[in-house]
Input
Amino acid sequence: MKIVHLLLTHSFAGTERHAVELANAQCATHDVTVILRKRAAENRPNAIAHRLDPRVRQVLVGGWSFLAVLAARRALRALAPDVAHAHLSGGCRALHGLKGLCLRVATLHIDYKPQQHRDIDALIAIAPWQLPHVPAGQREHTAHIDNWVEAKPPEAGARPRLRREHGIAETDFVIGALGRTEASKGLDGLVDAFVAAKLGDGVKLVIVGHGRHWQDLRRHAPPQIVMPGFTERPQDWFACFDAFVSAARSEPFGLVFLEAMAAGLPVLATASQGGQHFKSLIGRELVPLDDVAALTQALRQLAQQRPDRQVYDLAAFSYAKRVADVERFYRQELEQLRCSRPASAAAAGPGRI
Output
């Protein structure tokens, strides 16, 4: 199968991890290309291109967003794939106007948005709460396929090394957050709740990640809150943490939940979409959204309990199984697309599998 992924962002986060891991898995048995912005191939830690398997071909497009979309569209016409799979708004816009070229798929990394998804042949929802938002006419071509977790071991000695580098004692109880520093993640409320909780010197809050609001958050947070910025190795920080907290106002799925649970961390979360999706695995009450007082109390309880690491049943989020589900969906939708087209057009493609 000839597959093209469209990812027209420029910095690495959860959606980018999903797209990269999917392309890397598929290239073992398929012809895979990823269309990226040129900025995504820059020499910086939070770029995207360097994370792709060498067997994945890369097509780089530049210019302002509108021009990048047009360039991606031209590249797709030249590549003539069986499947074009879009991730986020830029990728979806590039698929518009290409009906009949190939099977056009988009993953709902956030939610169904008519201006992005109305024209797409087939959709993948990453959580069940998204399905009712898909119009009835498209729902029969929509599959719910959960995200996955590919557990990666930390570097030997990562926990003592990171604690030493950031002035954290080995006996300190570390509550950690990891993700992009943007308003939807609720990190400002987490800082306010942690300060209000007055947990003492033996409890530390560490916020790992970068984004457009990092400087504002750093100014807002007292110096004792550790903010190391972007990390290439989140698994090392999960080894450093004793518990994971998500204070998100909105979290459509929350790949970071799976990563924290794969590391065995106790989880404290707000009642975001992702928090509700994982509630049975989290095993503790969710905190109401944007409720600093409730989060303050929950942090106090967590620090008092100091729960041990635990083993989660993550079989439903197997990397290999979920990638196989995506490919099965491609084949199903390719067959339906082939059957719905006139014989002359069907003979020309898509569907070289």
Notes: The chain has a mean pLDDT of 94. The first strand starts at residue 2 and ends at 7.
